[in-house]
Structure formats: C-alpha cells, structure tokens
Specification:
The complex is a heterodimer of chains A (606) and B (343).
Chain A lengths: L1 H18 L36 H37 L1 H16 L2 H12 L3 H28 L2 H8 L4 H37 L11 H10 L6 H28 L31 E12 L2 E13 L4 E5 L6 H9 L6 E10 L2 E2 L5 H7 L4 E4 L3 H4 L6 H10 L6 H14 L5 H4 L9 H12 L6 E5 L7 H18 L2 E6 L2 H7 L2 E6 L2 E7 H6 L4 H9 L44 E2 L4 E2 L4 H5 L1
Parallel strand pairs in A: 3-8, 3-9, 6-7, 7-8
Antiparallel strand pairs in A: 1-2, 1-4, 4-5, 9-10, 10-12, 11-12
Chain B lengths: L5 H11 L6 E12 L11 E12 L3 E5 L6 H9 L6 E6 L2 E2 L6 H6 L3 E4 L13 H12 L4 H14 L16 H13 L5 E5 L7 H18 L2 E6 L2 H7 L2 E6 L2 E7 H6 L4 H9 L49 E2 L6 E2 L4 H4 L1
Helix pairs in contact in B: 4-6, 6-7
Classes of the chains: A alpha/beta (606), B alpha/beta (343).
Chain lengths: 606, 343
Amino acid sequence: MRKLWLPGAAVALIVLVAVLAPVLPLMDPIRQDVANRLAAYVPGSPMGRDEFGRDVMSRLIWGARSSLAVAFASAAIAATLGTALGLLGGWFRGVAEFLAIRGADVVLCFPPVLLALLVVTLLGPGTGTLILVLSVLYLPGFIRVSFAEVLSARGQDYVEAVRALGARTPRILLRTVLPNIAGPVLVQVSLAVASAVVLESGLSFLGLGVVPPTPSWGLMIRGARATMEQAPMLLVWPCVALTITILAMNLLCDAVRDLADKRGGGGAPKLRLVDRLLPGLFPAPEGPRPLLDVQGLTVEIAVPGGIIRPVEDLGFRLDPGRTLAIVGESGSGKSMAATAIMGLLPPAARVAAGVARFEGEDLLRMPEPARRRLRGGAMAMVFQDPMSSLNPVHRIGDQVAEAIRAHRDVPAAKASAEAVALLRRVGIADPERRARAYPHELSGGMRQRVMIAMAIANKPRLLIADEPTTALDVTVQAAILELLAELRREEGMGVVLITHSLGVVAEVAEDVVVMYAAQVVERGPVERVFARPLHPYTRALLAAVPDGDVEPEGIPGVVPRPDSWPPGCRFAPRCAFATAACATPPALEELQDQAVRCVRWRELSA
Amino acid sequence: MSVSDGRDAAGREGLNRPHDTAPLVVAEAVEMSFAPRGILARGRPVRAVAGVDASVARGEALGVVGESGSGKSTLGRLMLGLLAATGGTVRFDGTPLPRPGSAAWRGLRARMGIVFQDPFGSLDARRSVGAQVEDGLAIHTTLSAAERRARLEAMFLRVGLDPERLGAYPHEFSGGQRQRLGIARALATNPDFLVADEPVSALDVSIQAQVVRLLADLRRDLGLAMLFISHDLPVVRHLCDRVIVMYLGRVMEEGPVADVFARPSHPYTRALLSATPMLDPARRLTREILPGEPPSPTAPPSGCVFRTRCRHAQPACAEEVPPLREFGGVAHRVACLRADEIN
C-alpha cells in the first residue's frame, strides 16, 4: 500500500492540475503579446513567455490536457480492445486466434509514422485522429501480451478447477483468467501511456497531431526548437513535464501490479556476508578416518526479521561404501544441509558454524577453487529434477564428456568414448545412439540416469543424492536405486541420500539421520531406528507410512517455520507425549550407536 | 469393474460390497485419442485410454493406479465429463454425459467434483480462498450471500480449516491445508461423485495420512462415489474398495484391493508392487526391475501392450489383445494370456 501512495499522488496531482486548468487563475494560453516575446520572466508568468509572447506556465498546464487526454484515451482504448481480443483468441483458439493474431501482425507491418500520415491524410489532423492512430498502434502489443498470458494460464489446474465447477466462459475469463494476466497487461499500459505522451509530442511536432494554436507539449517543443538559442528554457519546461509524467506513470503501474499480485513472497534480500568461521572448535575423530564427517553444521540466513537457522548443529559420519539417509518433512533443512556440504548454498545463506571433513579436509573452510576441483571429481551430487540440471541445447553425450574433461585432461575423442561407456554403465540401452540425443528426447528415468552418469564420471568417492527418485515412477525409482546400490558395492562409493520416503530409506540405507525443524532428532542404524524408534517424531513419521495393515496415522499440524520455532522441544506442539518438561530445549543425547533428542525417551521406550 | 455384462455385474456387486446400490458412474469401453492439432501438425494420434470399463457406486471408492502415461488421469477426466470420449460411453446416474460446455453439462458440474494433485497450481493465487471455495455455490445455487457464507464456514470446519481464514490467500496456507481447500472447493455444492487425481502425492507423508483420513471420512459421511487416482499403491490399499491397474491406456488387472494386493496376478501389477518401497523387510517382494522403457503411446505394441517389458512374454502375446477375465477370485480380473501358467 505504501508503495502505491507516492506515485499515485504524483499522477493524481498531474491529472488534477490538467483537469482544473479552466478554473485555475491562469492567463489565456493562446493570447499573444508580441511585446514580451521570449521574455524569461514577466510578472504573472513565472516561466516566462514563448515566441508569440504567450504564457508558458499556462500553456504547459493546458497542454497537459491535450497531451494526457490523448495518451490516456489511446492507452485505455488499446488496452481494453487488445486485452479482449487476446483473451478471446487465447481462450477459443481457432478463428478467434487467427483474427486477433494476424490482425495484430498486419498493424505491426506498418511503420508508425506512415500509418499516422495515412490516417491524418484521410481524416485531417486533430486530437481525435491522434487518439485513433495511437490506439491502433498500441493494439498489437496488448493482443500479443494477453494472448501469450492466456495460453499459459488456461493450462493451469486452477482454471481447470473453475471449469470443472461448471462456470460459464465469461465468468472464467473475467474472474479467473483476467486477474491472472493483469500484471503484464498493466505493465503494458504504463509503457503505452508513457510512449503515447512521447509520440503525441512527436506527431504534433511533425504537424500530424494536435492543431495549433491548441497547446500541447509536442507543439511547445516544436515551437521552442526554432528559438532554442535565444530561450533554451522554453525547451526545458515541456521536456521536464514529459519526464515527470512518464516516471510517475511507470511507478504507479508497477505499484498497482505488485498490489494486484496476491501471491506474497517478496523474497529474502540477497546478502553474501563475510564468512566468519571459527576454526579448531571441533576435534578430528579418532579411529579409522571416515569418508565424510560432519559436526555442528549450522546454516544461517539473514531475513528482514532477523536471522533464521535452517540447519542447526547437524552431525553425522559416513564410511566408504555405505549409505546414510537424511530424512524429514519439507522444511526440516535436509536439502539445505546437503548444499552447505557441497558449498552450493544460495547467496543469502551462509555456514555459521561447524565442520564437514571430507577425507580429513574441511570442506567448509576450503577455498572455493579447491572445493570446485572436488565437486564433480572426488565428490558429486545428483539433484531431484534432472531436466533443470541438464543443458537443453547440448547432446547428452557431450554433456557427460564435458563432465569428464572438466576434471581430467583427456582428448575429446577419448572423453566421448568414455561417455558412451558411462551411459552403458548406468543402464541406458543403445548408448552410442542415445549419446547424440538431447535431454528433451529422453524420459525422466533416462535423464536421471544421465545425471548419475555425469556424477560418477570421475569415480567420486562421495555421492550426495538429493531426492534422486522423487519425481520418478516407482518402477523407475526401483531401477535407479538398484543402480546406486550397485555402484556403491562395486566402486566403494559412500552415498548421502536425502529423501522424504521412509520406504526408500528402509530399502537402501544403512544409517539414518532424522531431521526436524533444522535439528537432528534421532540418528542410528536403520534397522534399529525403524524397529525401535526412540524419538516420538520418528515414531509418528513411521506410523504415517501407509504400509502394512495398520491404518496410517497423520501427524497433526505442520513443521513450524524457521522464524517461529517453539522455545523448547521443537516437536512438542505436535507431539502426543509432550509434557511440561518439554518446554526446555532438549539436548541430543548420544547413546552407544544411536542418538536422540528427547527428554522423555527413556520413559517412553520403557 | 466392468458392467458390460449386466447380470454378471449384479451378481458380483452383491457379494463384493456392503453398499449395495446401482453404480452411479459407469464407463463402458471408453476411448480417448488426442489428435495432433494445428494446421501443420503431423503424426499419429495418442491413444491415452483404449477401451476401459469402469464403474463407481455411491459410497464406494475405486482406485486407479498406474505410472505416468498410463492414462489414469485421462480416465478420471472422462468419467467426470471434462473430456468428451472419442469412443464408448460414460453414464452418470443412468444418463449419458452431455457434451462438455452445454447447459446440461454445466448443471451437472454441481454433482461432481475434482481434487487436483498440485496444491500450489490448483488454487488461483490472486483470489481469496473463500471466494474460490464459494464459486460452485455462486454458480449453481440461488443462495443469498449470507447463506453462502454460512455454508462456506460449515465446509471449512468440515475439512478441518479455520473459517476465520476465509479471506486469506492461498500462499498463506501450507501444502496440506491447500489440499483441504481443494477438497472443500470440490465438495461445496454437495456433489455425489468426486475424482481425486493424486491428491496426496505432493504432500509429506505425515500430512498425506491426514488428507487420506479426511477423504475416507468424507466418503463415508457423505456417501460419495470416489475415483481415487494414484501411483501410490499402499495409499490405495487403505482408502479404496476396488482397484484398477492401468498400463498404456489399458486395464491390466482389477479387483477388490485386498485380493489384488495379496495375490497380484498380472506381471505388471507384480512389478509395480515389488518396486514399491516397504518399511518392513518381511513384506518386501523380490524386486523385479522392468527392462527397457515404456513404449510410446503413439505406437503401442501389438497384442498385449505390456509384452515388450514382460519377462513372461511369448509370441502369442503379440497376436491378440488379452481380454480381462476372471482369475483367482470373485471380481478379480486379469488381462494376461498366461495368467494361469505364471501364477
């Protein structure tokens, strides 16, 4: 609302002054006074007089009337008509589409000045003619914008939902489609108004628009040009008026668009803060060196309300050839933890504390170039959505070869041969032919196999897979998980698997970390944790899986947002076993090979 | 379940279901082909649904399972009448569905509802949730604004949402709550038939169970006929009475859920079940990885559409389309020539 106030007031003031011109105490804008020709200042004329001795301020305000009337009227006509045509064309397609789009194309074929000349020749110059010309000129823009927006909106589920409710077409178009295409159309309006003011000036300047002596900004500029050297200010005034009006219009339209957009969000500010890590706080573990050893990992994001911690004090260790699963609901921080370990955090987030030792070396304190050498080499990552991670314009064989050559100095031909071998390795039939395919020519399962081929191209010792099978069908998921298990067995690769599917964890992982609201709530070997969960959250999560004969039981409520975590145990508000003792934050209690964060776990598992 | 044979169907239904009523929605040999559109379009039409029989009675939940491209969502839209079938018929309450867009069709919308998969895309981000749930009432009833408001508040309470939040916008709700909003919108006009198209697939497992429970309660309390489309077999097992397993537009197997899950008889159903991750190692089936990729729906294999990936396939499977026939139990039917040998 606040954003709307300033530009709204500015536009309102400009319009008000123009509308009130007849009642304002102004001099007659067309009365000539040759004695005061080009005077810089005359009492009653603070902006001076023009080449015929007419009052500049009066002409500026009266000129606003014609300039703005032309601009608003033509933008409004073009917007109404163009949006309507675009709506109908996009919704009904067929003949309506043909008429709207081809009609717009025909208009676009005419150079604007030529079109104006033609119309002026036919109808004679004047304000009405100008409005007509400008409306026709802006029409194609509105048709195109609204047509494109309707096409993308009509495929949305919410439009289908209203249709399924039996709404008539006008209702769907006006209530559902129109508000959703309003944003771009409003932007187009602001552009049209702004450019109409300019074009009006231009066409009037050429003598094709407003007819003298009626004042308009364009005519004022035209008149001032002849006497530019004697009275430069005459040129400045209408230009300043133009600039301010256009700026105010643009700001207003932006504000209106933001206001009309109820989707919320706003986004966190993009801040990259200096990494202030404290080295040496975490002792290196004893015994055989683990592949990956994470301790006290904490990620912070600065948001307008303060600092939130999407990952807090995360710790686990992974040995070579094993799979560790991180599970939790959306918003538990599991993906953020993985990106922090890989050094791929979004710019707003930063690691605030902790270590992540990969074969003894702390990834979090490593300079970026060193980390980059590891990424895609000794450690690799597979993401949930293979389509957005593959480059759509390159053949997949080339992309895999590129992944090889990014880390090893091999000739292109050898890399290509290796790429084909990798594609075969991940179970792609006919790899020689498939290597020449583009990502869109492959199914989702095949694309995920390509992603895995790229990830294992340089024989990584650690693979971090973030929901690698979530977007896939179960039969494809089974094949991908089988492939990962095979690679792990044969290459001795360690895998960190991030997933929300407890079934997947049960089938492929040896160890599991259960996260809730940024914290580890339970950790241990999968068989033990799933057979005898110690934390009420783990229990509730397992009970929610619709597997077995017992009716699945949901967990009431949702994961709290990072800016409103409960003061004590974060799960307490949703926990069936919460008592007064849960008001103090529980510590992660380390048992022999399990860990649990619950004050009541002993009595609950008794 | 097919009702192509009326006598047969009546016999089965009596045995099979406690809610002993005539089917409310009946699809007979429905087909849906999508032709390539546009002047320059080339290529063969895609046959998304190829001759499927299905029926749902009041108070009954029919599960439709299958993977992407199996035609399960298209079947749902055909039974709702949102798409006009290119072959076969769909009858609702005894009469064939009218042409989409006609006045009769619009009137019928009040008696059917749909819940979508995507809790984000299925709500209009720019309108208040109250206005969206109210749409059906505004379109189909002559209730006053105050009466509509009262119905709306009751509906919100029914699906477990706070009526205070009628004026809020979708982004202020969590995924599970949005799905509840979608259910409230579909049920506002008190329909008889509800199609739920993967309503819980996008939700966390802890939230899934809540929404499934809500759907089960609503079906029982309102006596809804429900078509539950899902790729998640365990959820179907808990919510539905009967299940249809689809592959490439055809029904592979159908029957009471308990039967189909205990004795999956089609090789595809078995592969699907074996691929479903299970918590309890004891319940796991030996995993069968399907070789190759699903064939293109523009050029489905001859005979049995599953034969290209089936390890039991024989030359005979390419010859004829296997008919659905009774196998291993009442109303349990399988479309496999070799069902007897391989089971």
